[in-house]
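Entry 14. Structure prediction run on the chain below.
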Amino acid sequence: MEGVQLISVIIPVYNTENYLDACVQSVLGQTYKDMEIILVDDGSTDGSGRICDQYAAQHANVRVVHNENRGPAASRKCGIELAQGSLVLFVDADDWVDADMLDILHRELCKSRADVVLCAYEDVYKNGKTEKHSAVSGDAAEWTSFAECVYEIHGTRTISTGPWAKLYRKELFAGIDFREHITIGEDYTMLLQVLRNASRVRMLGTVLYHRRMFGGNISRSGYTERHKKALENYLQVRDGLIRAFPQYRLAVLGYHIEYEMAVITAMCRNGSYDRPVIKALSRDLRHNMREILGKCRIPVYMKLCAVLIAFVPWIFIALFRLLHFMTGR
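Output returned:
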């Protein structure tokens, strides 16, 4: 059984002044007291930086660093470099955590001698609706190889790819590539590298983390250059995983199809059509079409969309534009 350890709670901050107080207060209120809070202000243009400074002035265990805007990956890397604890937890600045989160995760990590401990989480929407995410049957689940983790991410979707709701041993971050030039999907790439370095990963079925679902995502925003970079990153990672774990080819293919589609729907939302990217997407989907239609465990509507994008992408674009005009979705 391991003793008391310093936990570094890293909170990347960017223009979240309306929610930052609730986030930081939920961390300061932890029953586990041996912790530090690192606020990484990523060039906020609202009052977030001032709020960070106020907390650092009032609490000895709170530190703040102000950077130019470089994206969430750079903020996480900065936080890791500043962290003095042997354990690390990420919290998004518009989310909040239960008061006993650190206590429960730390106790479980020590008892199981895991390298990463995950908890269940819930999404909280503006209308008050909540959606719990926990695929664990029973109290806990455990995996002892990277191959198992790859399947639980892509096949069962049990392991979420967000950096939050997870307590890590800091040593797992040694030498990883944070992909600072990517601002969509960078957390997915980071987590894969961290899990590759882990010997034991444990997941609890208890909800301890709460996400505000008030913003957009890759498919809800208009297309920009960052979507192109994200797609290139996803396809690179996808192909590497398939080479390393051919037994999970179908699971990985099915998982990544939705990201390919998200890029083209982003184009439809703001009418910014990147023809070379559309051509590359169509070619990639045609190359994998037999498996997509026959063996990938994805919804029928997604298979139909894949067929349209692969063979008649401009018909898909016209249909989606019509749907977007009629419903606003």
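The first helix runs from residue 20 to 28.
Filed with the rest of this week's runs.
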